[in-house]
Amino acid sequence: MDTKEVLKVYFGYDSFKPGQEAIIDAILGGKDVLAIMPTGSGKSICYQVPAMLLPGITIVISPLISLMQDQVKALNEAGIHAGYINSSLTEAQISKVYHKASEGTFKILYVAPERLESKAFMNFSDRMEISMVTVDEAHCISQWGQDFRPSYLKIIGFIGSLKKRPVVSAFTATATNEVKNDISCVLKLQEPEIIATGFDRENLYFEVETIKKKEDYVLSYIRKHPEDSGIIYCATRKNVDELYELLLNAGFSVARYHAGMNTEDRKESQNDFIYDRTPVIVATNAFGMGIDKSNVRFVIHYNMPQSMENYYQEAGRAGRDGESSQCILLFSAQDIMINKFLLDHKDFSDVSDENINLIRQRDVKRLQIMERYCRTAGCLRNYILEYFGEKRHASCDNCGNCHRSVTELDRTEDAKKIINCVYEAKGRYGLNIILGTLLGMNRARLKEVGATEYRMYGALKDRSEAELRQLISQMILEGYLYQTADQYSVLRMGDIEPLKNPDTHVMLRIHEDSAREDRTKKSSKRSTDTLTKAGYELFEVLRQLRFQIAREAGMPPYIIFSDKTLIDMCVKTPGDKTAMLNVSGVGEAKYEKYGERFIKAIATYLEENPAAVTSIEEKAGETKDLEETSKRVEYNRSMNRPDGAGASWTEEEDRQLEKEVVSDLDLL
Q1: What is the H or E stretch that residue 254 is in?
Q2: Mean pLDDT along residues 99-124
Q3: How many CB atoms lie within 10 A of CB 229?
Q4: Number of folded domains that form the chain
């Protein structure tokens, strides 16, 4: 069996996504690999396919219980025998896993990094032929990454202790050049093949809204998207609780998740969201890592995150199925104060004293970069991609800023006055002192530092504070100023030589909202765009069948089949095994388990609706006229409750389902 046969038979796909085949070929060629791939690009297939073809067993080191459980459940559903070892298992269960792996039952074994030094695991490793060690979420090994975990440093000793060094593959979705180099060096990768498929998620629409009444925005958004599944991230537990109560009292089906809740309540909330019983969850950033829910249509950040890495990782939980999805950040000046407070109270118990100050500086720098993202009038996607080292020249035409009307104002003279003020301050003061001085504020602090005596005091008193903040942010981006990364950062002059040229101008871009419909009209198409009204009706029939099977099997619906696979069934309406195996995402194992039931459901629908046309493909140059048939039929709202199809679901069945599916998001 070759790589494409493994892909088709076990995963149901006809072809690889960009980058996957090159990574797999490198691994099978015996090379170490470092792969940087965005969420939704199919990282797991890059090590699961070669694991099936290599001799012996592949060890996958993963940071979270839920991440392992979802991966193992999905693999077993696909007909690939896999297991995991973590703190959710008893010692007797772990012994059983070791026994099965020793017998050759498992081709892939997921392990928590804390287990690598245990005597039982070391004895097991000595007996096994380990062909590959895969490090998932590899950025966790870098002290300069946004999610450093000291337990990941155990990986180095584990690999070094093996009698024969296996191929080492490392995967991450978010890594700056610095973190990428860290991963390669710390893991001691040997002449690795470094493959970056790009960070762009073309199906995601990015937007920043600078508003005060965030609650009203969220209420309005959910009312307009009643059928969509989404995550709303908040910076604090208090925000989570308040927004949860607000949405609940407004009549929405909603769950919440934060570390202040007890374990059982968190599990219940998580399962309600994963099983589509509640479409929306309000959570802190403790929620989400390792949750492979493919049909999240929106991620709203109620508060600005602390770093671009965090933001892109959390926003990237939308649209994992490749369908058009929205990532909206609600920004206010208070978010900066909240994040500074959280950083000031950060836990450094696992960090050496000499590194604490360096990490604090990096945290401040990341926060500054995030603030500038929220204030920029430029293309949001390009800002993100350039942060991760991808230079773009043209705007994306698929983000909130690109779909706003822009007015350019010549603020060259204002920029020169700002530079003069920073010069007078001799690089001693931060943004607030500079702003207060330029605006001529009557503040005791300005008098205390002597700023009221500066020549530039009140020089820009006719401008608004918001406009000056945006102008200073733009001047930092253009290199005329820079902001130090100290705990109390100050503004200093950068390269001002270009401003000495009379032909150089500083143009401030001011944008205003155009109609929301216009701003989203160019977003990428959803695969549902080809479905007619009958297609949506069939889609609902298949969703109900999937929900029923998920209850019977005790697993999340998306592990049975993704929405994208169900949509492809609606388009292709397969009537036999050959046709069903031609549906994207249907492999041999899943066909044997579920294929006939879905074929029967499709046949029944077509018999009851003999004139039904379920999809219409738009031809090149043809004007599309689907005003009636392309309307999205609202999902059956009752599908978001345990008794979705109208059948009774007893409390005892609900409790049994929770026992069968263990999903704990807590760190190991």
Answers
A1: strand 254-257
A2: 92
A3: 23
A4: 4
Q: What is the DSSP string of 203-253?
A: TEEEEEEE-S-HHHHHHHHHHH-TT-EEEEE-SSHHHHHHHHHHHHHTT--
Helix axes 119-127, 154-161, angle to 10 degrees: 40
- Looking at the fold, whether 587 and 610 belong to one and the same domain comes out as yes
pLDDT for res 313: 87
Q: Which pLDDT value is given to residue 525?
A: 53
Six token digits for residue 219: 């209420």
In the structure encoding, which two tokens stand for residue 410, read together? 């010549």
Give the angle 450-454-460 at the CA atoms, nearest 5°. 120
Note the pLDDT of residue 512.
Answer: 62
Confirm whether pTM is higher than 0.85.
no
Does 481 map to a domain? yes
Half-sphere exposure of 143 (CA within 13 A, CB side): 16
Q: What percent of the chain has pLDDT over 90?
A: 49
Tens digits of residue pLDDT in 210-228: 888 999 999 999 998 888 9
More confident: 301 or 486: 301
- Are β-strands 481-483 and 491-493 bridged in parallel, bridged antiparallel, or unpaired? antiparallel
Residue 517 lies in a domain: no
Q: Cα–Cα distance between 420 and 581 in angstroms, integer?
A: 69
Q: pLDDT higher for 132 or 522?
A: 132
What's the CATH number where 439 sits?
1.10.10.10
Task: Please name the residues in contact with 580: beta carbons below 8 A apart, sequence gap of 6 or more.
Answer: 569, 574, 586, 591, 595, 598, 599
The pLDDT score that the predictor gives to residue 632 is: 34
pLDDT band, residue 628 (cuts 50/70/90): very low
Range of the structural domain that residue 210 is part of: 204-402
User: Quick one: pLDDT at residue 42?
Assistant: 87
145 lies in the same domain as 175: yes
Sheet holding 229-233, edge to edge: 204-210, 325-331, 296-301, 229-233, 280-283, 254-257
The residue written with tokens 């689907």 in the block is: 626
How many CB atoms within 10 Å of residue 140?
A: 23
Residue 30: predicted pLDDT: 95
Instruction: Indicate if 161 and 272 belong to the same structural domain.
Output: no
82-85 β-sheet, strand order: 82-85, 108-111, 57-61, 130-135, 167-172, 33-36, 193-196
pLDDT in tens, 644-668: 333 333 444 444 433 333 332 222 2
The overall average pLDDT reported for the chain is 84
Q: Are residues 551 and 589 in the same domain?
A: yes
Paired with 48 in beta bridges are none
Residue 520, in any domain of the structure: no
Q: What whole-number distance in Å separates Cα of residue 474 and Cα of residue 464? A: 16
HSE-up of residue 26 (Cα within 13 Å, Cβ side):
21
Q: Which domain CATH number covers 17?
A: 3.40.50.300
* Rounded-to-integer distance, Cα 61 and Cα 136, Å: 6
Q: What are the pLDDT digits (tens) for 81-97? A: 999 998 888 999 999 99
Q: Are strands 507-512 and 405-410 parallel, antiparallel or unpaired?
A: antiparallel
For residues 39 and 162, membership in a common domain is answered with yes
Q: Indicate the angle between helix axes 533-553 and 596-608, nearest 10 degrees.
A: 150
DSSP state of 486: S
CA dihedral 599, 603, 606, 608 (to 10 degrees): -130
130 shares a domain with 269? no
Same domain, 223 and 340: yes
Query: What confidence score (pLDDT) does residue 528 get?
Result: 65
Are 314 and 188 members of one domain? no
